[in-house]
Amino acid sequence: xxxxxxxxxxxxxxxxxxxxxxxxxxxxxxxxxxxxxxxxxxxxxxxxxxxxxxxxxxxxxxxxxxxxxxxxxxxxxxxxxxxxxxxxxxxxxxxxxxxxxxxxxxxxxxxxxxxxxxxxxxxxxxxxxxxxxxxxxxxxxxxxxxxxxxxxxxxxxxxxxxxxxxxxxxxxxxxxxxxxxxxxxxxxxxxxxxxxxxxxxxxxxxxxxxxxxxxxxxxxxxxxxxxxxxxxxxxxxxxxxxxxxxxxxxxxxxxxxxxxxxxxxxxxxxxxxxxxxxxxxxxxxxxxxxxxxxxxxxxxxxxxxxxxxxxxxxxxxxxxxxxxxxxxxxxxxxxxxxxxxxxxxxxxxxxxxxxxxxxxxxxxxxxxxxxxxxxxxxxxxxxxxxxxxxxxxxxxxxxxxxxxxxxxxxxxxxxxxxxxxxxxxxxxxxxxxxxxxxxxxxxxxxxxxxxxxxxxxxxxxxxxxxxxxxxxxxxxxxxxxxxxxxxxxxxxxxxxxxxxxxxxxx
Length: 506
Prior knowledge:
Elements: H1 3-6, H2 14-61, H3 69-75, E1 81-90, H4 93-97, E2 104-124, E3 129-140, E4 151-155, H5 159-169, H6 174-185, E5 191-195, H7 196-202, E6 204-207, H8 213-223, E7 230-232, E8 237-240, E9 249-257, E10 269-272, E11 309-314, E12 319-331, E13 334-341, E14 360-362, H9 364-367, E15 371-374, H10 396-399, E16 402-406, E17 411-425, E18 440-452, H11 455-505
Antiparallel strand pairs: 1-2, 1-18, 2-3, 3-9, 4-5, 6-8, 7-8, 9-10, 11-12, 12-13, 13-16, 14-15, 15-17, 16-17, 17-18
Helix pairs in contact: 2-11, 5-6, 6-8
């Protein structure tokens, strides 16, 4: 082809050139539209569609409607919690009887399996609620700790409790009570020495066969079932233990939200023993301490919102307690939040007197006994030094109470509930063995209720929750990056084409 004919071909004449440019423009427009759709799809599905669908799926699975996986686990925990008891053994009981400062030595752990289940379950459809009775069953495991036959010396849990409670509420009855206690227990001191299992589970003997009126006045409370921890053996004999009566027995009737219609209410306690608020703490009609705040402690609502506090109602303390957010952590490769229990204000308001000690819960209004609850070894409490005993060594690692919480699924990955019970000792002049005691907070024992979900469960949770979220996260950002880059390239090529066209036209 001659050169002049070559330049006459369609590609190089104005008509051909314009046609070629038009084809390019269309191609660039398609490129821009295509990559824009990729970007838009990634954004819409990744940020809106998938999260909404995933949240809907979680709400269907994580509620207490019959048949859901959450309901099955909630009704009966498929594995036991570990329950440990540590006791403060008194080493100078005779000196204490003369007014000396107590000395204690911690003995433990005594280890149990704790199985949690709920029974008498009734669904209330129109309230989206479920009512039930709570029950804890303990199985002693001497192979995991001490054998339970170790001798323990501690304040006599009947002698001192009865005397101090009467001193507070019915001081005019103290002379008669003192006579009855002397005949019933024949005490040589204000303390009792027995094996751990007898004191805490099997029970110590209470013989009510003596017909003396002072003895029968005391034993009448046993006969009426007014002494917590006392179990009748026959018409005149009883067994008393500190924890035995809590084994495989009713811990109260609850009504909680199922969280089907409103997922954020999942597990919230609505009533306890038929009441929608307590009547325990001062200003019972308006006081916030009497409100039933939080869940029953066995389930929490899933949430994407970061909560500074998780509330749980404790029947043992007659109030709700707050687990406060302390930071983020990684548990078996899962991102999680750490919450810690703190009995100091404003995390707790269950106090009943002007002499309330920050970092403790006064249990006298709750249990009718002169007891305090706190963290072990009075960790994070403001107990005055003159009321402390020798032998306490609080440390955060061993004595704090808290949980590791995965908020998206509402799963408690690990929990270490630690709680100490102490007696508020006071001298009682009418009771000879208590007449010289110093006013003292005497630690009795502390318990640890713990559960750590294993790596297999963590992997299962990862596959159900975090793997789909990770895939969605990768998909949306790849779509956005590819769509964004393609869109930018398309716009650039279109701009260059238009620039070249303007230059050619000139």
